[in-house]
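Let us work through a complete example step by step.
Step 1: write down the sequence.
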Amino acid sequence: MIASPNSRRVRVLAGVAVLAFVYSYVQIRSRWGQPPFGYAHGYYESVTSYFSGPIYYNNTLYTEDTEGLVDKYYNSSNPCASFPGTDGILLVMKTGATEVYDRIPTHLLTTLTCLPDFLLFSDMEQQVGPYHVYDALAEFDESAKAHNADFDLYRDQKECPVSQKSCVDAKTDGQKAWNLDKYKFLPMMEQTWRMRPGRDWYIFAEADTYVFWANIVHWLRERSHLNPREKIYLGSRSFIGGSSFAHGGSGYIISGTLLKHLIQHHPGVVKQYNVRGANECCGDLMLALALEEYEGVQVRQTWPMINGEKPSTLPYGPGHWCEPILTMHHMNAEEISGVWQFEQTRKTDRTLMIKDLYHGLIAPKMQVMRENWDNLSDDVCYINPDPEAQERADGQARERQKNKDEMNEVEKEAWKSSENCRKVCASEDVPDDEDWDRRRVMARRAGDPATANNTEIAEDTSPSDATARDTWKSLMNEKKRNRTCFQYRWHDEVCCTSRSFKLGAPKTPPGDDDVKAKWKSGWDLKGINDWIEAMGECKEPAWKTPEL
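Step 2: predict the structure and record it as tokens.
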């Protein structure tokens, strides 16, 4: 039977409908297994690939100057691989509520990630992710706080209904935070012993302190020859009113025996010094006074290993070179991360000395001169003798002004310009080794039987040239090692030089075009490199023996 045209049209339409249904089913079915928010799928995959991606990154510390010191790539897969065991050693870090979230996270991402245990104290109980920050003042006697203006900030912080940053300005309220900080030291000792008793050593540090753990553990266990069963108090010694104390920002170390005896045998010490705090300037001083009064213990000097400077302000040179470094102070988050990265990517596992910080972090940034920069030169100063200029100069520059009768001709002109100031250090430069050959040739051409070097010591004509050359080289190396001027700073007719070399920091540009108002800092790179060469390699780390 032949189907009618209408019947054929119906069958065709039915077939098209079936095919459309099947196509739609396939498309919908393929989407059933996808996340409900399809638009976020690509973003999710990109984030996942970032965290599960390469563990090797370009090392931002790697340059032509540092290629012999650090690896080209940063392997972040196992940051604690070479971290020392810290059994029996506890870190106690102190900070303030206004800066917890600015400073603590960087520590948690670097050195603290490798510590199995540590304590964090502040002037307010807080939480940073899974880490708890204890209030060092929580048990402070209420009657002692009630009428003490130093605790205004403490009360304001607790009443803040939002983030501390929204309520408290760390800059304008900096003095309030400083006034409150001094009350934390002794209560922190009491809480530390209660929560973590029985450790051999307790290392106390600020949130802007960096601890070199490989060095400090090795020194305490192998090199210091100190017994934690004795009463020991170590730090960078400072003085106020004739009383010595360990500078808190540099970090200090207390033996477990001393901490135990102070807290368990003298239960009234904390309360007594809480009241006394209103009449004292600093918490680290109060701690030292309590240790001397109750335990008869004074701080043992451990500087420069326990240090109050950071890489950009360390006075590199004599006394700050072959010494190992244990702590540094005034470190911001970026600097903490940078030093951690340097430790992680060093090509050697030998003891890290102060000179290593210079070569790895500072030397690549050194240059002949920087404007609007303060390189902290302040050991010897030369000031315009005019009374008005003398009055403008700051007190420290006047105190360190060299006596005019002791100045040479270069120094008498040093205050006139930055170029004149530069010549003070340049005048100490000595000839290079190849200069010996030039002098010998010139002397022979002149028919001179003796060659005089710049130390005005004439060469004996009898020894061989080789012997004479060695004598001359020895004299030059001696001058290089004993130089006293490495860098200079010039501003407003004041020239100051330094017996060490430091990088320093930017200085706010003056608001006018007055040449005298500009800060100019310069480095005698030849003199610096000559000194480093003359010093040679450190035969071994110059570990400090703590002394009273």
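Step 3: interpret the result. Residues 30-35, 37-41, 454-462 have pLDDT under 50 and may be disordered.
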